[in-house]
Design goal:
With 464 residues, the protein is mainly alpha-helical. It is built from 21 helices and five strands. It has three domains: 137 residues, Alpha Horseshoe (MgtE N-terminal fold); 117 residues, CBS-domain (Roll); 178 residues, Tetracycline Repressor, domain 2. Helices cover 64% and strands 5% of the residues. The strands form two sheets. The chain has a three-stranded mixed β-sheet. A two-stranded antiparallel sheet has the order 4-5. Strand 1, helix 12 and strand 2 form a beta-alpha-beta unit. Helix 16 runs parallel beside helix 21, helix 18 packs across helix 21 and helix 19 runs antiparallel to helix 20.
């Protein structure tokens, strides 16, 4: 540890990651020097998002001390920014009185996200300590599924009736929007159904006696509490939304979803799909131990191992063929690897298309035909290259023909399989991302070996 005095000047500037690393280092050094006053000043000058990353990198005891030095409003923002695992690590041993105070400072949807992961008894104890109105808002949000519109919406919004004037709407904002980040107000009819929204910019520049109904944008994109969060993310992307009203079964306004929540959804869904495509899950973050991580990865790897045994069984069926022309074995890795990679590329594009809405059940035939054409071009190119290498390497025309044709067929089958399997999974209500990892790769290995050695057996029986 350096003997130079610790200052905060060196933390400013630089890239985000460098800044986080500097903050982590300063935290450890100041605690080692028992200078909590300086550490309190350093941490309370930082942005909540940066502090959330700092908390994720600290050891348990250090994190508890550092978080305890944050001012309550900042601590609440940090808690809202941290990932689920870090949040639980912070709050699991926190006094209910302290936690209830922090949750009251947070947006209701963020507070609900924290409480839903706690034990039921502990969550109820914290809710009992919160202000009645705020506790009720949080409880209502906790009743919705976490990955739906109800799970990510916030009930905090400003709404006025159609006949409200601009002056009256501004008075409502002054009175009700003190602690809210507002970019627009909603306009509702007599039944509480949203009929439009008015940006604050337009409200601020209009004449005081103008009815808000003359200023509002009537083209509303609404969602329900049951709408899946992936569908909501697609809607925000498609229509360039900053916010969307959430309506109940009768069409009444019950909340809103803002773009910052959708950004979190996009990151969460992308991370989840990446984990699934690799045959693991984000539970690894919650299981930092060696055995915990192994337990998460092992099931899919065991399936892959079973697939390898099946591949070995297929090879065993063609022992006689390999005994006659042993050089065929030299090209087995090339056939399986190229077919597997082609299938993985195809399935990745298909899964991505399903997520973004570019691929749907109505476009299945078009997607398949496009991938068949792609497979033909790739297969001809790779097959020709493999055939030439085999011919020149072993001076055996039959081996060259066999390798080239098998490469073409293996790639073609793999690409088509990479499209069909995710589409089938999606049709059955199974997350198509599951199909893009070990399942596709293992299946293509087995099929590639069968095509290659089966073709070699046919050619040998005819021409040798």
């Amino acid at each position: 540890m350096s003997n130079e005095p610790i200052t905060t000047s060196g933390i400013s500037g630089g890239g985000t990651q460098e800044r986080i690393e500097a903050l982590v280092e300063v935290t450890y050094e100041l605690l080692a020097m028992e200078d909590t006053d300086m550490l309190r000043k350093v941490l309370n000058r930082e942005r909540p998002a940066d502090l959330a990353d700092v908390m994720r990198h600290l050891d348990e005891e250090v994190r508890e001390t550092a978080f305890g030095l944050l001012e309550e409003s900042l601590a609440a923002e940090v808690l809202a920014e941290t990932d689920a695992h870090t949040t639980m690590a912070i709050v699991e041993d926190m006094e209910p009185e302290r936690l209830s105070g922090l949750l009251e400072e947070m947006q209701p949807d963020d507070a609900a996200d924290v409480l839903v992961d706690l034990d039921r008894e502990e969550a109820e104890k914290v809710l009992d300590l919160m202000e009645t109105e705020e506790a009720q808002e949080v409880q209502e949000l906790m009743a919705h599924e976490e990955d739906t519109g109800g799970g990510i919406m916030t009930p905090e919004l400003i709404s006025v009736r159609e006949e409200t004037t601009v002056a009256e709407a501004i008075d409502t904002l002054r009175h009700d929007a003190e602690d809210q980040d507002i970019s627009h107000i909603y306009v509702t009819d007599a039944e509480g159904k949203p009929v439009g929204m008015v940006p604050l910019r337009r409200l601020a520049t209009a004449r005081p006696q103008t009815p808000v109904s003359r200023l509002m944008n009537r083209d509303l994109v609404t969602v329900t509490p049951e709408t899946d969060q992936e569908e909501i993310a697609r809607m925000f992307s498609r229509y360039n939304l900053l916010a969307a009203p959430v309506v109940d079964a009768e069409g009444r306004l019950v909340g809103q979803i803002t773009v910052d929540d959708v950004v979190d959804v996009i990151q969460e869904e992308a991370t989840e799909d990446i984990y699934k495509m690799a045959g693991t899950s984000d539970q690894e973050m919650e299981r930092p131990s060696v055995f915990g991580v192994a337990r998460t990865r092992l099931p899919w790897l065991l399936i892959c191992l079973l697939g390898s045994f099946l591949s070995g069984a297929v090879i065993h069926v063609f022992d006689a063929t390999l005994e006659k022309i042993i050089i065929l074995a030299s090209f087995l890795p090339a056939i399986t690897a190229t077919g597997g990679n082609s299938g993985l590329q195809s399935s990745t594009v298909t899964v991505r298309g399903l997520v973004t809405g570019h691929v749907s059940s109505g476009l299945v035939l078009r997607t398949i035909l496009r991938e068949i054409g792609t497979a033909a071009v790739i297969g001809v190119a790779c097959g020709t290259a493999a055939s030439a290498v085999a011919w020149l390497w072993f001076k055996h025309p039959l081996v060259g023909i066999c390798v080239g044709v098998a490469m073409f067929l293996a790639i073609s089958v793999a690409v088509v399989l990479g499209v069909l399997v995710p589409l089938l999974f999606d049709k059955l209500g199974i997350d198509p991302a599951v199909a893009s990892g070990p399942f596709i790769t293992t299946s293509n290995d087995i099929l590639g070996i069968f095509i290659y050695l089966g073709l070699a057996t046919v050619l040998m029986s005819r021409f040798m």
